[in-house]
Inverse folding.
C-alpha cells in the first residue's frame, strides 16, 4: 500500500515511520511512503503558503493555489489516482472502521493543514475529511501519522501475527479484554486464576466477559452498536446500573 503526505513540514514523518513496525513494513514492501513539501508548488521567492483571511480574524489561512496545484500534480503520478484525505474538526470522526476501509485501498494521499486552517475551496479536492476528535492540533501531521499507523498495522504481514490486529479494541465493537503477564502475583495483586488454568474455552469466555465489562465501564457508548446476546446485554445492564466499579 502506498501512503503519501502533503505538508509544509514533510521532515517530521521519517523519525516515526522509519522505526519499529512502520519501519519493518517499509522494509518488507508492505508500506510505500513518500512525503511532499507543499512549498514546492509555490511561485514566489518566499515560498508562501498562507495569507490573511478575508473579513479579518486571528491567524493565517493556507492559500488554495498551492494545494490545488500539488494535489492535481501528485494525483497524475503513479498507476492510479490516490484517495485524497483532508483533516478538519468538521470532518467525520476517524475510527477503526475507517482504518479498515482505507486498508483495502492501493494509494492514499493525506493533506495536512497548518495555521488557522485551509481556504474552504481546497476541500473540494478531498474524497473525504476526517477529524480525530474534539480538540485542535497545531497541524495535520500528527493526524496523518495516526491514520498511517492505524491502517498499516491492519495490512497482512505488518504485525507478524495475523490475528494481532483483529483481536484488539474496537475490532468487534468492544474494548479489548484485560491482559496480564508475569509475575502471576505482584505485591498481592493476583492474575485471575482462569488465565492460569490452561482451559482455553474458559479463558475465551473470561476475555469476552472482561471486554464487555471494560466497555460498559469506560465506553458505554460503544454498546449501542455492538452485537450482543440477550445474556450479555443483561450483564452489561447490571454494570451500567452500578454507581461505581472496577475491573475484576
Amino acid at each position: 500500500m502506498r501512503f503519501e503526505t502533503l505538508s509544509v513540514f514533510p521532515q517530521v514523518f521519517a523519525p516515526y515511520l522509519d522505526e519499529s513496525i512502520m519501519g519493518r513494513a517499509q522494509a518488507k514492501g508492505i508500506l510505500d511512503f513518500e512525503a511532499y513539501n507543499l512549498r514546492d508548488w509555490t511561485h514566489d521567492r518566499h515560498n508562501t503558503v498562507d495569507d490573511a483571511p478575508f473579513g479579518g480574524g486571528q491567524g493565517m489561512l493556507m492559500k488554495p493555489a498551492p494545494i490545488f496545484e500539488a494535489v492535481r500534480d501528485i494525483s497524475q503520478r503513479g498507476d492510479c489516482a490516490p484517495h485524497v484525505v483532508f483533516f478538519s474538526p468538521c470532518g467525520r470522526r476517524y475510527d477503526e472502521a475507517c482504518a479498515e476501509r482505507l486498508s483495502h485501498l492501493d494509494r492514499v494521499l493525506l493533506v495536512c493543514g497548518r495555521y488557522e486552517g485551509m481556504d474552504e475551496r481546497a476541500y473540494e479536492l478531498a474524497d473525504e475529511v476526517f477529524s480525530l476528535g474534539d480538540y485542535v492540533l497545531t497541524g495535520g501531521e500528527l493526524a496523518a501519522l495516526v491514520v498511517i499507523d492505524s491502517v498499516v498495522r491492519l495490512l497482512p504481514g505488518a504485525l507478524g501475527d495475523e490475528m494481532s490486529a483483529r483481536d484488539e479494541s474496537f475490532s468487534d465493537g468492544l474494548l479489548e479484554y484485560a491482559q496480564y503477564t508475569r509475575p502471576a502475583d505482584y505485591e498481592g495483586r493476583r492474575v485471575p486464576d482462569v488465565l492460569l488454568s490452561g482451559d482455553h474455552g474458559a479463558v475465551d469466555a473470561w476475555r469476552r466477559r472482561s471486554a464487555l465489562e471494560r466497555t460498559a465501564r469506560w465506553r458505554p457508548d460503544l454498546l449501542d452498536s455492538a452485537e450482543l446476546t440477550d445474556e450479555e446485554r443483561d450483564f452489561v445492564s447490571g454494570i451500567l446500573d452500578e454507581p461505581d466499579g472496577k475491573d475484576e
